[in-house]
Amino acid sequence: MKRIGILGGTFDPLHQGHMIIAEHVYEALKLDEIWFIPSHLPPHKQEATVSSEDRLQMVKEAIKGNPHFHVSAIEIEREGKSYTIDTIKHLKGAYPEHKFCFIIGGDMVQYLPQWHRIDELRQLVQFVGVGRKEITGKDLNEDVQMVEIPRVDISSSIIRDRLSHDQSIRYLVPESVFEYVKEKSLYEPKSE
What we know:
Elements: E1 3-9, H1 16-28, E2 33-38, H2 52-63, E3 69-71, H3 74-78, H4 84-94, E4 99-105, H5 118-124, E5 126-131, H6 137-140, E6 144-148, H7 156-164, H8 175-184
Parallel strand pairs: 1-2, 1-4, 2-3, 4-5, 5-6
Helix pairs in contact: 2-8, 4-5
Keywords: ATP-binding, NAD, Nucleotide-binding, Nucleotidyltransferase, Pyridine nucleotide biosynthesis, Transferase
GO molecular function, one term: nicotinate-nucleotide adenylyltransferase activity
Function: Catalyzes the reversible adenylation of nicotinate mononucleotide (NaMN) to nicotinic acid adenine dinucleotide (NaAD).
């Protein structure tokens, strides 16, 4: 049985914060692998800025060279809204011998009760919240396992904003993502 951490997201674009979360959870929980799953249409956010194909490719570029990081396109291939319940049910059916945990930001833990079919989802997967020492699973949600990570204030929206103002994102994203964004002219400033 493999123990797999799932890190889902829009990854619009993937940044160093995502990589730090994945590595810290992998190590803290002694997982076998981390699977990055880019969403097709996130149910709680507006549509992504760039295509799902570009977002998937950025993840592929970022995780090259890390043997315990993998990417799955199941939500992109499924299309429609990307509900976690559908993804977890699919994964459990396709990989019944694996045990999955689903990684979320510590700030999202308090919103878990509002997730689509959360009661059923809690029966299928262990949630892992990431955050700082002062955030604890006991304070926020009894059944969420918390993993402490260094505070990294990077977000995809900050990166998109910097790019829209023709500012550098070097070192905010993995170098391979930086090169991919440049090569494909993604997130270019809007002409006025």
